[in-house]
Every structure is written in C-alpha cells, then in structure tokens.
Amino acid sequence: MTMRSHPPPIINEHQPKVVHPDRPTQTAWLSLFKRIVKNANTRYGLLWLTGGLLFCLFASDKAVLSQFQLENGTLLGGPVEIPLTVNLRQLNSITNGLAQVQEGAAAADTNEPVPYSFYIDEIEIKESLEKYFEEQANKQIFEKTLNIVCVPKARFQVIPVERCTATIEGHLEAITVLQFSPNGKLLASGSGDTTVRFWDLNTQTPFDEYGRAHRHWILCLSWAPNGKMVASSCKQGLIGLWIGATGKQHGTKLLSGHRQWINSLSWQPLHLNGSCRLLASGSKDTTIKIWDTHLFKTVFTLSGHTASVTCVKWGGQNLLYSASQDRTIKVWRTTDGVLCRTLEGHAHWVNTLALSTDYVIRTGAYEPSKERASDEYDHLDESTLQTLASERYEKVYKLFDTNGGERLVSGSDDFTLYLWKPETDKKPLARMTGHQQLINDVKFSPDTRLLASASFDKSIKLWSSRTGAFLSTLRGHVQAVYQIAWSADSRLLVSGSADSTLKVWNIEKRCLLFDLPGHADEIYAVDYSPDGQKVASGGKDKVLKLWRR
Amino acid sequence: MPQNEHIELHRKRHGRRFDHYEKQKKKEGRLPHILSKKAQTLRGIKAKLYNKRRQNEKIQMKKTIKSHEEKETKQRQEVPEGALPAYLLDREKQSRAKILSNTIKQKRKEKAGKWDVPIPKVKAVSEAEVFRVVQSGKRRKKAWKRLVTKPCFVGEGFTRKPPKYERFIRPMALRFTKAHVTHPELKATFQLPIIGVKKNPSSPLYTSLGVITKGTVLEVNVSELGMVTQGGKVVWGKYAQVTNHPENDGCINAVLLV
C-alpha cells in the first residue's frame, strides 16, 4: 500500500517529549482553542479571548501572539496567543482546528487532519517556536503579532521506489518517450523503431497490438486527459491517434499538415471540454496547429514564430503557450487563434515550459489521494468528469492568489529560467540564474510550491515557485540530467540522466534517497505514475524498466 | 544479302502482306519453343558454347525483370539508426572519445597562449594605405600630419587636440559607432554600439588610434541580447571580430566571439 489515509509521521521523529504535570493535554488544548475561536464572535467574545489569553499566560512562561494565515493571504481565525514551547504536532492540531471551525459544515469530507508545515518570513519552523527563535537570534518579537503561514502538505505519502521489478524488451530501437495514463493504469511508449507500444502494468508485458502507422522515429507522446486516447507524433510531422485500452489505431489515417518534425503535443484540458477533442502541436516548421481529433482536421494554424517551436502547453484558461528557438514565448487565445502576448527576455533558445497547473491538467478528473474503484471513472459521463476536473483545477489555480493565476516557467539554452504570469504580465516575475549549462527540463511540483530544473551541468536545482528564490542544488549525477518527474505528494523527485542511472531525491531533506542503476545506456525518458506507485524509464538500450518499492 | 535497296523500295511502294504483323507475332511466340528444342538437341562443343551464351542472356533478363518489379512496388523507406528524443535533435552530440581529445587540446592551447578567432590570419595593412600625408606649413613643405583613410572608432567623450598640434587626423565621415554583429549559433544579426577597439592585427599604432580594418577585434555592447554570467551578473560587453572590409562597404560587419 503506497497510500495511507492517516497523516504521515512528521519528519523530526526525535522531538523532546515535554510532559508537564500541570499543563493540560493536547486534546484539551485543541478543544480549548476551538471554544475560544468559536465564541470569539459572540457577545462575550472579548471575554473569551482575554480569558483564554490569561489562561495561556498563567500556564506557560513565555507566549507569543500569532496570526495563522494561508498562502493566499486568507486569515485562519483571529490572533491567538500560543506558548513558545509549542511543537509541530501541537501547531498542526491548532491549525486543523482553526481550519475546521472556519469552514464549518462545508468541510464535511476533511475528517482526516491535514498535515501542515509552518513558515515565518519564508523560513520554516522545524521543531518548535523556541528553536526557531534560537536560530533566528535577532528576531525576538514579543510585542508584534507573529504571522505564521500554514502550508498544507499532501495528506497521503508516497513510498519511494527502490527496485527494478521488470526489464521489458520489445522495442527494436531506443525508447524516446514514455508516459503513464492520467489514472496511472496504462503506460505508452514511443521509440526510434517507429512503433508506439502499450504495456500492461499488472503482468508487465507489452500488448499484442501495437501502433505501426508511423514511418519515422516517434518524437512525442501525449495521453488525452480522460485517459482514453494517446496522440503520438513522428519525425515526418505526422500525428497518430491510438486507443489506450486496446492499442489499436483510432481512425485510419495519420494527421498530416506539418512540414517538419513535431516537437511537442498538448491536449485541451478536461475542465474546458469533457470530450477531449482538441490537440495542439508545435513543430520545427515554426507553426503551431490545433487539430480536431474527431474530424481529423486542422482547426487553426498559428504562425508567428520565426524559428522552430520547441514546446507547447495548453493552459487552463484557454490560452496556449508556445516556446521557440527564436528566444520568445508567445501566448495565443485558443478560441480564435489570436496572438495575445509575446514574452521576451531569453538570450538563447527556449527549451522547455512548465505550468503550475500541469499536474492537475494532466490527471484531469482522477484524484490520486482518494482510493476509488478502478473503473469508477468509466461510468461517469463527460459533464461529470468535466465538473470534477474543474473543481480540482480551481483549487490549484487559486492557491497563491484569491483571484487566481497560472504561473509559467521557461528554461533556456542561456542557462537561466524565467518565471512569468502570462495571463497578465509581459514582464517576468523573476529570473533564476545559477545553472552552468543549458536547462533541459523544468517541472512544477504537483502542489505547485516548488520548481525543479534539470540541466546539462549534471545538477538539479530547486526553486520556490512563488517568488523564484533559489532553495537548493541536488548533485549526484555524473553526466547531463535529461528528464525529471515528481511524485504525486511532492515529497520525492526522480531524475534520469545520460549516465544511465535514475536517482530518487527526498525533497524535504533535500538529499539523495536512492540510486537506481540498471540501464545499460543513456536514459531518454522517465515518468512517475500519477498515483505514485511506479516509475518507468526507457532509453538508448531499448529496454523499458519499471521500478516499484 | 541484297546488293541494292530493291526490297525496301518494293516495301515502300507496295506495302507489306496483309497478315505480315500477325505472322511476325506468331513467329516471335514460337521462338522460345525453338530455342529450347535447340538447347535440348545440341551436342558437343556447340552445346557448351550455346549454353554459356544462353545463361548470360537469362541472367540479364532476370535483372531487368527485378528492376521493373522494384519500380512498381512502393518501397518502405529505411529508418535511420541512432534515434534521439526531441530535445536532443537540434544538438550535435560530441562522441565521448572526442571530449577527451578536446580537453587535451584546450590545455595545450592555454599553455601556448593562442586563442581561437574566426579569422586568424589577416593581410597586414601598410601605413601607406591607412595614412595619407597632409602637407602643412606656409610653403606646404612640412609633411608630418597624417590623414586616416580607413574607418575608425573614437570614444564618446572624444575631443580633438588643437588642430595645430594634431598629428593624426580622423575625419568625422569615417567615424563609426555601430557594428552589425552576428551571433554564430543563433545566426541572427544585431546592430550593436561599439565600446572600443581591442586589437588591430596589423599594428598596435592602429589599435591606439582606433582604426578598424578586416580582422580587428572590437568590444561591443551586448546588453540588448540579455546574456547573464554564471554568477547572475548581466553581461554587457563582448568581443567581436570584423569580417568585411569596412572602408569598401561603408558598414562594419562582425561576428561575435562567444
């Protein structure tokens, strides 16, 4: 079982157990606070507050007035007086209580408490407030209200992958692309032998039927967000559609129109259209085409770039972002194919793009934290799937800002990354420098708080996605890092590199967790299944490896 | 063998028999049977010679048939080896052996002090070409002033020396401030302001005067391109080498030294 439904153990296991004979127990604290906050709005609210304050003052030596708030600025209850010796577990219960009280009856399904991590002025509180103030020697403030930002962590925890459970041969040439389906049950891979193969994860063997329609190397693969179809593109500029469950081709012909190879594919998100009809493709011939997969026709051709388009991403607000080798990123409106904005700033080719809502758009209606029956989603019709997907999308969209905002990160050959808010601004929010070689892959964590960038300088750098501040560097690879993938709870990162090893990194401790050797040659593609159970990797040695715990 | 053309003349005048073409076709149809009968009944040396000749003919026939067949069938193009993912397609990957030899070569170069420039050898420009004598004095006998005839660069705060004491005259018409610089990898050209002349390969005198000829290394202002160093600082000056003859073209074309 990779997912547990009770809160995971908090990182610092060796907390000092302070048992004061006079102090009330943890649950008593919680109920006390609940009562204080509940009654704060009543007529005798002030009395309650002061009473509570006085109680706290008498019960402990030092206390601080603090205000809990969420990342987007909404306050959780009023200012509360808490003793300095409060530890993480207690802070967690306080926050959970406050959140429940605030949401009231609406939070009916949050019976399980959510683990939180706490930040004051961007610095994390590791063990207790006391320790925090010890470390930050010059920040003793007892008169002012302390703003504590509560960041909810994923309620489930993914167990890291440790061993290779299967090495499956089947492709006759190097594997260039790999992707798990949005519900993590199916796996599709494309290779240089012009075939697209589907793999059964239960028996760890390939399907009998596999896609043979292409005539050249498969460069790009993308699952539709409803998990039913796969689009693949080849070096001749043709797009093929396949049915995921069987492996057969959808339709009889390939979509043609591009004159040179296609670098990137992106489906329209599920919350915009439940039928998964439109697909965008960016090609080396400097154009982007939007296709209708039911009618097998081109809907729009967006031209404007002057060099090869390296990456296209369909955003959640019906905007299409395209990065190109002409050093610009263009924002297009997909409803009528009009160019909205051009984001300039890079000094060399823009290689990759990443959207903060990538994970939510990829998984669509499927919620990995809730264990549902495997075929529950098959019975739901398109409109229900669309509403489920849009609920999940809205939550992530409004995470940092109550008005909502998608963030875009672009990585380039000029060794820097830019953080943009493409819906509103033409100027970047932040410029992230530090890499010493070109950046090949950028990914937002599924909870959108962190950003990881993989570069040819053998390192992976972690950045905060809200401000673009540098957090840490993960070193360990001995050759260029090609691809990275986040686990569903944002606590693990897996990276594949040219030195033929995969490495699993622990993000909370910012260190290497497992080294996964086994491939014989460079690893070109890595993917973490959206439910966090498996990792698949493939590369130049033509075998596909599946990794589990 | 007819000695004259009377047979042809007859054919032209009277035409052929009515069934001529039919008979010809039927005769051709009988040919394989006759040849096979011949092959079966021949004996001795004649048979050997005949068989050898016949074998060569058959080989030629088989080749032509095969080539016809190939033309008709749609050939599936051969898929080249060495498949690469999309992100590696436009990049030239160095083979591992080459990396080692490159590092050794780099070390050797650093020791020798030689640097890689796009145009390593340039024809030196003589003083007679660059300078023209300007005569001065009441009787136009003094010849110590020189007029620069090639494009040059003077700094922003340049003020001439008092004309009486000026030895090298740099006319305003030949002063340039901008250069058309090409980025070698991006293959894009930008018009960038010149910061200064770093080195003129013909003579250090030209470097100090700021004379720009083919092969001169200039320093240009690249803040337009938005490049950044490893430490996060913005690069605003880079070297570029002149690739044309500016005195003939009227503009300075240079290639950026990345």
Structure characterization notes:
The complex is a heterodimer of chains A (549) and B (258). With 549 residues, chain A is mainly beta. Chain A folds into 2 domains: 18-152, Ubiquitin-like (UB roll) (Roll), CATH 3.10.20; 163-368 and 377-548, Methylamine Dehydrogenase, Chain H (7 Propeller), CATH 2.130.10.10. Chain A has a 5-stranded mixed sheet with strand order 2-1-5-3-4. In chain A, strands 6-36-35-34 form a 4-stranded antiparallel sheet, with no helix packed on it. In chain A, strand 19 and strand 20 form a beta hairpin. In chain A, helix 1 packs antiparallel against helix 2 (45-59) and helix 1 runs parallel beside helix 3. The model of chain A is unreliable at 1-5, 9-22 and 56-60 (pLDDT under 50). Chain B has 258 residues and is an alpha+beta fold. Chain B has a domain at 127-256: Thrombin, subunit H. Chain B has 7 helices and 8 strands. Chain B has helices at 6-14, 20-41, 44-72, 96-112, 127-130, 204-209, 246-249, and strands spanning 131-136, 142-148, 168-169, 178-183, 188-199, 217-221, 237-242, 253-256. Chain B has a 5-stranded mixed β-barrel with strand order 4-5-6-7-8. A 3-stranded mixed sheet of chain B has the order 1-2-3. The mean pLDDT of chain B is 88. The A-B interface holds A 173-174, 176-177, 191-194, 215-217, 219-220, 261, 263-264, 308, 310, 325, 327, 345-349, 351-352, 414-416, 431, 433-434, 436, 440-441, 482, 524-525 and B 76-77, 79, 81-90, 185-186, 225-228, 230-232.
